Amino acid sequence: MNKILVTGGAGFIGSHLVEELVKNPLNEVYVIDDLSTGNWRNIKKVFRSLAFFLPVRVQDVHEDLVNPFFDTIYHLAAKANTRAVGDEEAIDNIDSTRAVVKLLKPNGRIVFSSSCAVYGNQRLVTEKSKFSPISTYGCSKWLNELHIKKHCKNYTIFRFGNVFGERQNGSRKMGLIGVIEYRKKNGKTMTVYNKGQDYRDYIYVKDVVKALVTVKDKDIFQVSNSKAHRTLDLIKLSGVDYKFGKSNPEVGYILLKNSKLRAKGWKPTLSVTEYIKGL
């Protein structure tokens, strides 16, 4: 049996990953999620297939509770607010990564969900682009990558573009597409920052999961569609009512090259515009 831990397993991306992992009878899947942004209903259909579910922070789990340690850890749990003020959330992200590394078997493998936020204000990036985060969230992801590379024998690091898809919690303002979907379904007006002139590279959640499960090299990969979309164009496409809000200091344009991941046989299946048209 492959003993697998998924942190953040009741969240947006994590719940889709858990559903995929339990399909393999050789996987023994454990989930830790403090439910700060996740919801146990996201994994309700597969709940009975889990070895256990702990509704706590990773750093609050005593090592004796999960002995023997894990063969594979998918570390997705994080506070993912790029507009966060102060360093409290970043410190929480760093602490959780340091804690989860200690739960891995000596020859085990950790799969880490990093982010394009590590690049900051760079327009076209590859896995070799320099680190230049402009948010505390991006800084925490960068520091976590360094910690994993130093302390884990086997690892795969995935730097996500802007993930969209089912179960994205738009009511909590988590992700542009999630907010669009929530506002459209509930007939509410959304606030658009920076006049909607920011460009982002969007990737479907199930395409992310496919990469997480199938690519196992000790390496770093970008998960993206390699196409940038302007925020205002996507909002107009959705038909949701909107108003302009204040300007925020954030990345204006980013596009992630995905050729390295494509060379492994992976490819994206659904574009963000197709998803929005289906709402």
UniProtKB/TrEMBL annotation:
<dbReference type="Pfam" id="PF01370">
    <property type="entry name" value="Epimerase"/>
</dbReference>
<dbReference type="InterPro" id="IPR001509">
    <property type="entry name" value="Epimerase_deHydtase"/>
</dbReference>
<dbReference type="InterPro" id="IPR036291">
    <property type="entry name" value="NAD(P)-bd_dom_sf"/>
</dbReference>
<feature type="domain" description="NAD-dependent epimerase/dehydratase">
    <location>
        <begin position="4"/>
        <end position="218"/>
    </location>
</feature>
<protein>
    <recommendedName>
        <fullName>NAD-dependent epimerase/dehydratase domain-containing protein</fullName>
    </recommendedName>
</protein>
<dbReference type="InterPro" id="IPR050177">
    <property type="entry name" value="Lipid_A_modif_metabolic_enz"/>
</dbReference>
